[in-house]
């Protein structure tokens, strides 16, 4: 491990240990299984400089992500409360517009799994395949807008502006 990587790993260990100490209320018994998890987590985190979130974009993205989850949950609850389900389930192939291969695409695919009514089925080099519980005309547009937000979050240059 190079000096910089070693230093980054040490900082991660320290930060994760402090977080664990706070979550476990300082209980020494919690370290028996907390310490191995901390070491593995610190080791699996990407190396320094592999990706960085832009702070302002992250602050504006968080409310949007929470809104996606709330809106999806309300939509699924509304569908479940209807006498007759009027579902329009589809598998969408969403072609990548802006995100390069790597953490940003994986983040978008994972985020969609957290939105009720959507499920990432496959992540390929050319497209994202998503199962949608209730397709709407604006579903592809929503995915484009989400991809743009994630591109800003990761500081990806806007290569081309896709239509809304």
From TrEMBL:
Residues annotated as transmembrane: none
UniProt xrefs under Pfam families: MNHE
Compartment(s) of residence: Cell membrane
InterPro entries, sorted: Cation_antiport_E (IPR002758)
* Keyword annotations: Cell membrane, Membrane, Transmembrane, Transmembrane helix
How this chain sits in the membrane, per its record, is: Multi-pass membrane protein
Q: Signal among the record's keywords? A: no
Which family does this protein fall into?
Belongs to the CPA3 antiporters (TC 2.A.63) subunit E family.
Protein name (record): Na+/H+ antiporter subunit E
Starting at the broadest rank, the lineage of the source organism is: Bacteria, Pseudomonadati, Pseudomonadota, Gammaproteobacteria, Oceanospirillales
């Amino acid at each position: 491990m190079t000096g910089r990587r070693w230093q980054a790993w040490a900082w991660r260990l320290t930060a994760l240990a402090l977080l664990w100490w706070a979550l476990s209320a300082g209980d020494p018994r919690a370290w028996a299984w907390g310490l191995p998890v901390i070491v593995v987590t610190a080791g699996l985190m990407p190396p320094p400089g592999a990706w960085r979130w832009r702070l302002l974009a992250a602050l504006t993205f968080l409310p949007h992500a929470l809104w996606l989850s709330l809106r999806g949950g309300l939509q699924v609850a509304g569908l479940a409360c209807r006498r007759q389900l009027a579902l329009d389930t589809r598998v969408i192939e969403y072609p990548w517009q802006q995100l390069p291969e790597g953490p940003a695409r994986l983040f978008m695919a994972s985020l969609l799994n957290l939105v009720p009514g959507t499920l990432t089925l496959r992540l390929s080099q050319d497209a994202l395949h998503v199962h949608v519980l209730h397709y709407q005309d604006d579903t592809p547009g929503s995915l484009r807008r989400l991809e743009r937000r994630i591109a800003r979050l990761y500081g990806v240059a806007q290569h081309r502006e896709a239509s809304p």
